[in-house]
Q: What sequence folds into this?
C-alpha cells in the first residue's frame, strides 16, 4: 500500500473518531478508497511475484542451457565412433574370409574356431560402442526434454499490464532465446546423429550375432561328420582352392587379430606370469649363489640342472604350470608360450643330455614347430595335405627308430617312452585320415600328436627341475628358513612326488583335448557349474568366486613368505649383510601391505561388498583384540620396531644375555642367530620393552676389546707400553682408527696391571684378535725379560719367648 495513502486514511480515521456526527458520503468514499487500494496492492504483489518467478524460470533455463552446451562440448566424438564401427565391420569382413565367402569349399575346424574367437571379441567391442552411444543419446534426450519442460512453464506466458515491465520482460526473452536456440539446434542435430549411429551399431550387432550363429551351425555340422569323407583321397585330383599365398595372408591377418585381442584382454594375467617368472628366476639364482658359496655345485650339474640357467629354468617352470590361468587361449597364443618354454628347455638340454637324444629332441622340436605353423593355416590347400603327410611321416619314422633301438635305455625320464608310443599311434591315425579324405580329423590329430609329445617332455622335465630345486633348498636352507616355503623338506627325495605327475597328466590331457572341437561340448556343463551364480538370500556367489577368494589369499601369503625369505640374510654372504640390513626392517611392513592388499583383492574378486567386509572384519578385530592381546601387542611392537629401527636385520645385538645377529623381524617375533649357531625366537614385545645392546646401531659392527696384563713390580712400564703398542700396530686385523692405547690401571697384590685397548671390525673378530695378541704378548715379554707374575703370598713365622710359651701352655 502506498505510504501516503496509508497516512491519509489514518488521519481520516482519527478525525472521524473525534467527530460527533459522521457524513455517510464521506464514509462511502473512504470505503471505496480502501477497497481500491487493496485491489491495487494485490495486483502489484501478483505482478512482482510473477516477475520474480519469471526471472527464476529464465535463470534455470540459462543454467540448464549452459550445462547442455558444456556437455555437448565435452561429449563423445561421433566421427571417432563412426570410424570404430567401420573398423569393426572391416575386421568382421576379414574374419569372415573363407567362412562367409567362397561358398561350396570345405570349412575347417581351425578356421571356424579362430573366426569365432575373433568375432566374439568384435561383438564385445561393438557392445561397448553401442552402450556408449545409447548412454550419450539418452543423456542428450534428457537435456532436450528437460529444456522443453522448463520452456513450457506457465509462468513464462504471463504478460504484465505494466507496459514498461512487459518491455523489459520481452528483452529478457529475446536474450534467452538467442542463447538457447544454438544449443537447442545442436541438441537436435546430435540426437539425430546419435540415432543414426545407434541404428548402425544395432545393424552391426545383428550382423555379428548372425555370423556367430552361422559359425556355430557349421561347427556342429563338421563335428557330426568328423569321421566322414570330406575331400577326395590324397592320390586323387583335389578340388579347387584359393592360392596358397592368399590362404597364408588370411591366416596371418586372423592370427594377428586373435593374438592382439587376447593379449589386451588378459594383460593382467600376462603381467602376473611375468612377475612370477622374475620371482622364480631370483629365487633360483639365490639357490645357485648359495650352492656356489657352499661349494656343492657339480661340474656336470647332475641333480642340479635347475640352477644351470636360472632364467631359462624359471621360464620353463612358470610357463608350463601357469599357462592354465589363461581361459580358452587361442592357438596362436598357446604357440607363443610353447615356443618360449620349449626353446628354454632346448638350451638347457645343450651339453647335458646325450648327443643321440639331443638329435631326437631337436628333430621332434622342429617338426613340432612345423605342425604348429601348419595348424595356423586355416583353409585347405592341396600342397598343405602333402606337407601334413610329410610332417606326420617324418615323426613316425623317428619315433619307430627310437623305440626299436637301445638308446631308450639312456633316457633320464623313462616315462617319455609311453608318450612316444602315444605319439606314434596318433600320427598313424593322422596319416590314415589325411590319405582317405578326413581332412579336419587329420589336421587335429597331426597337431595333437606333436603337442602330446613335446608338451609331455616339457612337463616331465618341469617336474624334474621343481624336484631338483626343492632338494637343493632342503640341503641349503636350515630351520627356521625352510618354514618359509610351506614345504615338508623331509619328504623330498630323488624322485618327484606322485601328485606332481598326476597334475602333469591332467594338464597334458587338457592341452591335448583343446585341439578337438568336441572338448568344448564336454566342458561346457562344467564351466557353467563353476561360473553360474548361486543365490542364498540376498547374496549371490559362484564356485569360481569362492575358489578365487582363497587362491588370492594363498598367493598373497606365499608372496609374503617369499619376500620374507629375500629380506633375511639367510642366502647372502657376510659381505652382503650390511647392504641388506637397510631393507630388512621394512620387510615386515611390506608383508603386512601385501596381506592387506591380498585380502582386499580377494573380497573384490569374490564379489563381496567392501562395506560388509569392513563390518565383519571390524567385529572379528574386536574379538581377536581381546582374545589375542599378546599376539596383537607383538604385532604392533614389530611395526614400531620397523619405524623406530632400534634393531635392524643384520644387526649384532645382545638381548637378555643372548648375543647374535638379527636374522629376521616377523609378524609376532624376531629370530636371533647366536654365535653358537642356534636360532633364538624372541617376541617383538620383549625387544621393544627390554634393554637391548646394539653393537651396530651407530658405528656398524666395530667393537672395542681390551686385554688386561699384569707385570712384576720393578718392570720398566714405559718399555712394556711400547711393546704392547707395537704388537697391536703390527696386527693386520686391528683397526688403525680409533688407534690402540695402553693404560696403567692399578697396583695389584702381585703385579702392576696394564690394559691394552684396540678396535676390531666385528665382535667375533675381536675375540680372535685377542687370542692371537695374548700369544704374541707372552712371547714378546719373554724375549724382553718382562715377567708376568702369578699371585703369591709371603708367610713369616714368628718365634715366641720361652716364658710366653710356658704361660700359654698353662
A:
Amino acid at each position: 500500500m502506498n505510504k501516503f495513502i496509508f497516512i491519509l486514511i489514518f488521519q481520516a480515521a482519527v478525525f472521524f473518531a473525534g467527530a460527533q456526527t459522521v457524513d455517510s458520503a464521506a464514509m462511502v468514499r473512504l470505503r471505496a478508497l480502501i477497497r481500491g487500494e487493496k485491489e491495487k496492492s494485490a495486483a502489484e504483489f501478483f505482478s512482482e511475484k510473477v516477475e520474480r518467478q519469471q526471472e527464476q524460470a529464465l535463470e534455470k533455463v540459462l543454467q540448464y542451457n549452459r550445462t547442455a552446451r558444456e556437455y555437448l562440448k565435452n561429449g563423445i566424438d561421433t566421427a571417432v565412433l563412426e570410424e570404430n564401427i567401420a573398423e569393426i565391420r572391416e575386421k568382421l569382413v576379414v574374419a569372415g574370409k573363407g567362412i562367409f565367402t567362397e561358398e561350396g569349399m570345405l570349412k575347417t575346424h581351425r578356421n571356424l574356431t579362430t573366426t569365432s574367437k575373433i568375432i566374439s571379441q568384435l561383438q564385445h567391442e561393438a557392445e561397448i560402442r553401442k552402450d556408449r552411444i545409447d548412454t550419450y543419446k539418452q543423456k542428450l534426450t534428457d537435456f532436450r526434454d528437460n529444456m522443453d519442460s522448463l520452456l513450457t512453464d506457465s509462468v513464462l506466458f504471463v504478460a504484465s499490464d505494466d507496459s514498461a515491465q512487459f518491455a523489459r520482460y520481452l528483452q529478457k526473452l529475446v536474450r534467452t532465446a538467442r542463447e538457447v536456440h544454438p544449443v537447442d539446434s545442436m541438441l537436435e542435430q546430435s540426437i539425430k546423429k546419435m540415432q543414426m549411429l545407434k541404428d548402425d551399431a544395432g545393424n552391426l550387432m545383428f550382423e555379428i550375432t548372425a555370423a556367430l550363429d552361422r559359425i556355430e551351425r557349421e561347427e556342429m555340422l563338421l563335428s557330426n561328420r568328423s569321421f566322414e569323407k570330406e575331400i577326395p583321397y590324397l592320390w586323387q585330383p583335389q578340388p579347387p582352392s584359393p592360392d596358397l599365398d592368399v590362404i597364408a595372408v588370411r591366416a596371418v591377418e586372423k592370427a594377428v587379430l586373435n593374438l592382439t585381442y587376447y593379449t589386451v584382454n588378459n594383460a593382467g594375467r600376462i603381467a602376473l606370469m611375468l612377475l612370477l617368472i622374475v620371482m622364480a628366476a631370483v629365487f633360483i639364482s639365490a639357490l645357485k649363489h648359495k650352492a656356489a658359496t657352499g661349494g656343492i655345485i657339480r661340474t656336470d650339474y647332475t641333480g642340479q640342472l635347475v640352477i644351470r640357467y636360472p632364467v631359462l629354468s624359471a621360464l620353463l617352470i612358470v610357463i608350463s604350470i601357469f599357462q592354465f590361468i589363461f581361459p580358452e587361449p587361442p592357438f596362436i597364443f598357446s604357440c607363443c608360450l610353447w615356443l618360449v618354454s620349449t626353446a628354454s628347455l632346448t638350451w638347457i638340454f645343450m651339453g647335458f643330455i646325450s648327443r643321440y637324444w639331443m638329435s631326437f629332441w631337436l628333430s621332434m622340436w622342429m617338426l613340432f614347430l612345423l605342425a604348429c605353423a601348419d595348424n595356423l593355416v586355416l583353409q585347405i590347400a592341396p600342397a598343405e595335405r602333402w606337407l601334413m603327410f610329410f610332417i606326420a611321416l617324418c615323426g613316425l619314422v623317428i619315433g619307430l627308430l627310437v623305440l626299436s633301438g637301445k638308446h631308450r635305455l639312456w633316457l633320464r625320464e623313462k616315462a617319455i617312452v609311453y608318450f612316444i608310443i602315444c605319439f606314434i599311434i596318433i600320427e598313424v591315425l593322422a596319416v590314415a585320415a589325411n590319405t582317405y579324405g578326413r581332412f579336419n580329423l587329420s589336421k587335429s590329430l597331426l597337431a595333437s600328436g606333436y603337442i602330446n609329445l613335446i608338451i609331455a617332455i616339457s612337463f616331465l622335465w618341469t617336474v624334474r627341475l621343481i624336484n631338483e630345486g626343492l632338494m637343493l633348498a632342503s640341503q641349503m636352507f636350515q630351520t627356521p628358513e625352510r618354514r618359509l616355503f610351506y614345504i615338508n623338506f623331509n619328504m623330498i627325495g630323488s624322485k618327484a612326488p606322485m601328485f606332481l605327475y598326476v597334475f602333469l597328466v591332467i594338464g597334458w590331457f587338457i592341452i591335448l583335448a583343446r585341439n578337438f572341437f568336441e572338448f568344448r561340448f564336454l566342458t561346457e556343463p562344467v564351466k557353467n557349474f563353476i561360473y553360474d551364480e548361486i543365490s542364498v538370500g540376498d547374496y549371490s556367489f559362484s564356485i569360481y568366486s569362492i575358489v578365487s577368494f582363497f587362491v588370492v589369499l594363498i598367493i598373497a601369503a606365499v608372496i609374503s613368505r617369499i619376500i620374507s625369505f629375500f629380506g633375511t640374510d639367510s642366502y647372502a654372504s657376510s659381505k652382503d649383510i650390511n647392504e641388506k640390513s637397510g631393507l630388512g626392517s621394512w620387510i615386515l611392513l611390506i608383508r603386512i601391505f601385501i596381506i592387506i592388499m591380498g585380502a582386499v583383492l580377494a573380497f573384490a574378486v569374490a564379489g563381496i561388498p567392501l562395506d560388509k567386509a569392513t563390518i565383519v572384519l571390524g567385529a572379528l578385530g574386536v574379538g581377536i583384540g581381546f582374545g589375542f592381546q599378546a599376539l596383537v601387542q607383538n604385532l604392533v611392537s614389530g611395526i614400531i620396531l620397523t619405524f623406530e629401527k632400534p634393531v635392524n636385520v643384520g644387526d649384532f645385538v645382545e638381548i637378555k644375555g643372548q648375543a647374535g645377529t638379527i636374522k629376521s623381524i616377523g609378524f609376532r617375533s624376531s629370530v636371533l642367530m647366536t654365535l653358537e649357531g642356534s636360532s633364538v625366537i624372541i617376541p617383538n614385545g620383549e625387544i621393544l620393552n627390554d634393554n637391548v645392546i646394539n653393537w651396530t646401531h651407530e658405528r656398524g659392527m666395530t667393537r672395542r676389546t681390551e686385554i688386561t696384563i699384569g707385570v712384576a713390580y720393578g718392570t720398566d712400564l714405559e718399555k712394556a707400553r711400547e711393546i704392547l703398542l707395537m704388537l697391536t700396530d703390527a696386527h693386520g686385523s686391528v683397526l688403525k682408527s680409533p688407534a690402540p692405547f695402553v693404560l696403567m690401571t692399578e697396583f695389584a697384590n702381585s703385579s702392576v696391571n696394564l690394559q691394552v685397548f684396540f678396535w676390531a671390525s666385528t665382535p667375533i673378530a675381536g675375540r680372535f684378535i685377542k687370542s692371537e695378541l695374548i700369544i704374541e704378548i707372552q712371547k714378546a715379554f719373554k724375549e724382553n725379560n718382562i715377567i708376568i707374575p702369578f699371585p703369591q703370598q709371603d708367610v713369616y713365622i714368628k718365634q715366641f719367648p720361652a716364658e710366653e710359651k710356658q704361660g700359654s701352655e698353662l
